[in-house]
Amino acid sequence: MSEFSQPSSPAQPVQGMRPLHKTLAIAAASAAVIGLASCGSNLRPTTIPIIGTGPAAQPTAYAFVISTPSPTAQGIGTVIDYSGDAVMATAAIGPSPTTFTMNGGTAAFTLNRDGTLSNIPVSSNLQAKNVFFSTLGPNPIDGPFAGQSPIVALFDGAVGLFALDDNLNQVDVLSGSPAAAFKLVIPVDPTPVTMEGVASSPRYYVVSQMIPYGADCNTHPSTVGVTGMADAVEIATYTRSAQIPVGVCPVYAIGSPDTRRVFVLNRGSDSITVINSQNNALNQCTPGVNQNGQPYSCHPTLPLSTTATAATGVTPPNGTTGMPAIAGPVYAEYNPRTSQLVVANYDGSSISIIDVSLDEFGNDSSTFGTTYTVPVGQNPASVTVLNDGSRAYVANQSDSTVTVVSMPSHTVETTIPVYQTASQPAHPRTVVSTQNSLFGKVYVVSPDSPYITVIRTDQDIVSTSVLVQGDAIDVRTTSPDGSTGNVNTISRMPGAGQPCFLPLSQLPAASITPANCKIQDPTQLVP
After folding, report:
1. Which of 516, 492, 507, 504 is nearest to 379 (CA)?
2. Listed residue (354, 180, 193) closest to 263, CA to CA
3. Residue 30 backbone dihedrals phi, psi, to 5 degrees
4. Helix then strand then coil, % of the chain, to nearest 5
5. How far is it, in rounded angstroms, from Cα 126 to Cα 63?
6. Which pTM value belongs to this model?
7. Of 36, 100, 119, 330, which residue has the fewest beta carbons closer than 10 angstroms?
């Protein structure tokens, strides 16, 4: 054995050091103590917090109502919030407004009895100091219109505001902000009553009745016998490019959002004149097949009654089942989700749901003109269609109700009485809607009532009523779906075929005059 060799023996611990297994045991115990200490009051936050989804987002939308406390008082504009049905703001907007229009949802224009025009910012911060006025001037002629404005309708287009002058047979173009200033005049055919054009369209259409402005289209529209005219106005040059014949007593027009068609409602001939706005002419052609071999045809006229089908020789593809003998269309909405036109037939107490779809090349589809007639309440004055195309809500003026119609099945789902009191009856003339969540809301106004009826569409019940200052004249919503702007830019002056402010039960034929059509209180009618 070497002198450097040592005998084998167990390893001895160094003085002051623990064995390894004891050290590991102590470390594990300490970690456990620390882990326990981290629980309870010292809980560490999780890496990804769990956040509840919450309720569905509500539309960012308002309902804007104009009302008149008395025939000589300042009109009032009221902004109602969608989410809580609360009055957000009110302001004086001008003396006795008679009609109004609203653009994409940020501003409204009212026509006042003294010949002024009000420019109103629609927001929750509305104040009278922000309302601006323009002077249009009183009617220079004598007679029933003396001292009143000759303007009978407003249209808010993408390039300015258009005021239709029935006395001088012209359209006044106004522009500028905040006040609308006179820009130029466009001559049109006699007695313009309404105007229509989609914002992106190169031309708008002014619809004239070609008879003196009065009560004929209210009292006996089917016997007037004079056909109206639609004048095409080129927006780039403000010039008239075409004169297109329409039906008897045209009262309203509406365009499709794709700018390809314009539909003119003729109360006197129970029909709709279809204009191909791309061709700037009646929607007529020689039937043929498109590039895909699919058949197509054109429809210059859509009949709404059996009387109209006999007079025109045109029958809808699905026949005339359910069509009334007399329709009397006064208002319509176009629903882009379903490519359907929904028409309120005032004299036929019904609505017409019409397929106006096109093929991929812009031709009328094979189902174009398919018409379903649904009986509703008495004298439907207007209709609104929910953004998803599921239901239509119809304001029945004479029986004070709203009819809810299923669009897919073309049947009545329910009838809802509007809010009224024993001392304050209500006869609805305008109904509008907005929808963007699990439910939408429908707003109904009656020119002889200060109460706005609000309907929830998830249950189709009256959820509340909102009291405004004076009798309500009209209402618009700032958005149909909470994301896009208001598309209802056409005003509706009572008279000349449009329903008066009072129902027929309170306004017999002998009393239907342009002046009486604007009366909201039956005690003030002039015999």
Report:
1. 504
2. 354
3. -65, -40
4. 10, 40, 50
5. 13
6. 0.87
7. 36
